């Protein structure tokens, strides 16, 4: 058998060598293109320069891709029966997926009619025959879709393992075991026992790997689903939702690059999950067109990207995430113009007091953000005094209040109402001036009025008054104003209860933004509107005016790359939006994400049983509003590829409490290693966690994750100090989407008690391990004699 294996490896090695020879030729071509293009820089016309930039850019991209794709470039092969039609697709492969009627003879023998190699990108030989088919091409679909139940044309499916230019091994699955198939007159050998298990058993690192070599049929259906409207995917922990979402982004780009030039946005729940997943797309040959952003880093305001650095306590998050906030924000955006009356500007700046914050507050995620937006003046002026046409004119508080209310009526964005307010002020002053009746001739009257307006609006007093009385509001200044409990109480009357008002106001006094504040900032941005920026007058050089030099000097053309980067930075809407862990989005976050995909098609992946949001019905309503009436195509993923059965069975007990009646995905493998339980006294907790983490580090080659309740995060990081980079401490909410070779879940009861969704958060924590799980119980867990906590018993 070893002989056969070696022979098959050398067969694949030969093919790989051929592929590399061809790739080298292509690289030379690309290099030639680059030098050729560089020569053109001698020709100085703007057109030639732009053409050169474009060519260098394209050749550079090509070269980069070929170089980076050298690792593990070719990973699959299928051996196929004769197909039904004789047509070839654009990739040179035959198109039919069904065997021809006479492909199999009566005594169940057949000949292999076509062999295809599958890789990260397609490579054609000089004669245009396919050396490697891109994994996303239609011809590669049978590699993923074929099963022994529904094999199509595939007889043997092979995964090729290679490193650099060397083939290390092959793993075969036989799709038609009943056939005696021959290839070039010899019988078809079958090596190994399947690629999936080999992939699943590998040690995990802190970054996710792509799964191109082992995508399963039910996953492939989602990845290649047509992009029309909404593709909706549900599946339990470890069913590959995140992996599928990422591969789908790469597939969509491949399949219709022009359409997705509008960008694909992937919304991820935490910065940790962004960091974990962002290497997958480059490994699939896709960069640039896809933005992966954490939901707390999705918004931008005038000062640039807004990024959350803090988690709110569950009680505060629940209020800030609720669609009730929409009403409060609308009132606040109008009310904020009325100044602070109690000095909210100052209050918003006040440093957060430790005592206040410690109640239910999870604390910082990272560095504080001190980039505060402009503040609303503490007291807006209550009187306007100006002189026009030699007369002193004055508007008192009552009149100013009436004018403000009048200007604010209607729903237009507040910042766009400033010109209207200015006009109303001038109207009031005009009528006070008594000049209205001076001319009966309408033209003269209009002229008089316009010189009256000019008189006033050029006065410094008036300009200062307007800036103070109707300042340009920024989302941050309104949010700061909401930090004043009395004012927030007024804006939230009958919508939030006094307890909620107190908690939200207190949380907004902090300098740093929370994850849930970001959705409020984004909402405020659309409520306030961005006033058109006064166009900066270009400082004209008098010489230019004299000679007209400006016209003659050629402008430096923006290069393609610069243009692509600029467009990406300016992009506010996307052609396709993928939401990962969609069950966690709050209604306010759905509104924020929805604004980025108003004309997009969508892929939404999630698992209701892992939701850390307290009111799934409210979130579902907001999601439906964001998606509008677009039709949905639903998929369910049913197999858990992450957890061995021993861990999945334990997690299923919590699932039964968290979401009675819902089904666990079936674990695809079992390791025979049962989860471990230990009971720890509170005072020994740190030492025990450390000891257990160190033990697990010895047992596994990859990573160890220690999951604790959110308010123990910093403490837990200290417990693990010095154990090295393979182990990390995580708050329960941060564990979302991540995975480790082994995990320690610390005091399940603390995690479950943290929030109304605590049991679902615990379910997430228990489903992060690919090999081993230890549960450490405290007294609160009410453990039995074996150390099994109350929540994890039958
Ligand atoms: N077809 C596959 N071949 C190899 N590995 C796979 C396959 N499908 C999933 N996996 C692996 O299983 C693990 C879980 O995948 P993923 O994180 O995408 O699941 P998920 O459904 O998003 O999980 P969760 O809901 O718990 O976040 C990952 O390590 C992924 O690489």
TrEMBL record:
Organism domain of life: Bacteria
Where does this protein have compositionally biased stretches of type Acidic residues? 364-373
Span list, region Disordered: 342-381, 607-626
Q: What keywords appear on the UniProt entry?
A: ATP-binding, Helicase, Hydrolase, Nucleotide-binding
**The UniProt record lists the keyword Metal-binding:** no
Q: Where is the composition biased (Low complexity)?
A: 346-362
Q: Which PROSITE patterns match?
A: UVRD_HELICASE_ATP_BIND
Residues that coordinate or bind ATP: 235-242
Q: Identify the InterPro entries for this entry.
A: DNA_helicase_UvrD/REP, P-loop_NTPase, UvrD-like_ATP-bd, UvrD-like_helicase_C
The residue ranges of the UvrD-like helicase ATP-binding domain are 214-644
Q: Does the keyword Nucleotide-binding apply?
A: yes
What is the name of the protein in this document?
A: AAA family ATPase
* Source species of the chain: Streptomyces durmitorensis
